[in-house]
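Two folds, back to back.
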Amino acid sequence: MTQNGLPSLRCLSSDRLLVGLYRTFIVSKAGKETGDAKAPLQLPRHIAIIMDGNGRWAQQQGLPRHAGHRAGVKSVRNAVEQSASHHIEVLTLFAFSSENWKRPKREVGLLMELFFTALHREVKRLDRNKVVLKVIGDRTAFSEKLQKRILQAEEKTAGNSGLILQIAANYGGRWDITEAARALAGRVARGELDLQQIDEEAINGALSFAGLPDPDLFIRTGGDQRLSNFMLWQSAYAELYFTDTLWPDFDTEAFDQALTAFSSRQRRYGKTGEQVTEAANRSVILESEV
């Protein structure tokens, strides 16, 4: 069992029929412990995280920056386990942006080495727990050795039925949109697509995250409050959650706090608060009659 009383990643069922109900409504930790009637926790389908603060964490510990990146791997494991235990459908982690090549050459080299090693060490654990691993971004800048390791990890987990874990590496939101525009323009030039057929759905289908729900909850650790070119198109309606907690310190309690904050938000999508409340009440009545 995990700290919040939910089953551990190893105990999870792959039964997709129950995921939607479990994800939408679970009893809060406080309600279970006190017996009080608590409002159910509304959970996101897709969580995106900018894992910021590794270097500053290391500096606070008197360690070199790369030690912070290594410490952050533990938080990655915890985020994966917590997402799976809450039956979140998709978890996307921003591991390396297209702008991160500007960092010191030694740090970039150590990050690439850590990425390669982590893929080797973690893929068996992910596969054992039915996690699907996908790496999103421009891989051409990576070494052939790393590209091969990425492909092997993806192929090994492709048939799984659990959490979809996406690692955004050498990724940028503007790059993603540019590539989609180029692909659609090419289809128009070849006569495969009419110009008038290019709409939001067509663009969505050409982006790196095609076929997956947009992120509902966008978390950034480390104190900064910006998107940093991450999932710009997909995050149009995401709930933004910024925390001063540095990524290596983003533990189970911090993860639960983010979920609680998300649950307290009213997602209106252009409607009034009254319309959203009415629709939610109707949904509860219909469910009670089933």
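---
second:
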Amino acid sequence: MRTLIKPLVAYLKRRHAVVASPFFLLLLSACSEQRSSFLDPGGPIAAAQRAHLIEVVAWTMIAIVPVFVLVPLLFWRYRYRNQQARYTPDWEFSGWLDLMMWGVPFVIVAVLSTMLWKSTHALDPYKPITSDHAPLAVQVVGLDWKWLFIYPDLGVATVNELAFPAGVSVALDLTTDTVMQSFMIPALAGQIYVMPGMRTKLHILADEPGSFEGENTQFSGSGFTAQKFEALAMTTEDFSAWVAKVKTDGVLLDTATYGRLAVASTGAKAHATLGSSQMPATGLYFKQVEPALFANILGRYSHGTAVPPALQPGAVGYIPPAAPPGDSR
């Protein structure tokens, strides 16, 4: 499909056609190598969201289409020059018309309410996704302006790159060590908020290998637009090779390194500070993670006293740990 759509989009651009409509935006998302919309779903959650949207639109069309059809007909039928239209100045009530005007919207609202109630429970982000394999646990920390992904069972971590095997449910535990943020991978799952000192959960699953765009949708400062990451669904073999690469090319993630990582910066700037040429240009690899790092980040805000600005990532006045001797980065 993407192969067929790319030439069409290129032709429309050359002709200066208007491509801002939802239809053409859908075409553009379909021809992108990185899937970024639930209209082009990569997993069961996004597919269910798209189906729900189509059902809602179909039901609302029951009320909308007649309006667009009947209003022009009424204008034409009762136009000033039409002498055949019946003139009834004393007409004031019609039982069947009232039934249609109030009954149909009532039925539509009742149906949509029922659908919403069912889909809300079916798509509960805390609800695990059934798969044939054990779920992969990933701990997510939102920072300014990047995402940290910790794999507690594998002992590795990454920045701005979330990799996982296709067909395997991924259980995400999320928090933030700065202001409130909003985590979203549109082609795989819905949006969920993350807040300092709180743990939220989200489950995702990709039907097949592919690349999916993830982002923070909550404005959080000047680097907000760059706070995107790549979610990579891989085969089991490719995922094992990826883990081996992270362990080979990564650096140690201890408290001091995390303190430097937590400085307000984009993924590219963090890479320039802590990364190497073997890592993604806007991300980082960590081959070993200090135990209980995620728990310590959560517990930072649970002592009953305010965190001093010098120790608060993202705060004005935050003082990161000094670089180790001999580290010029």
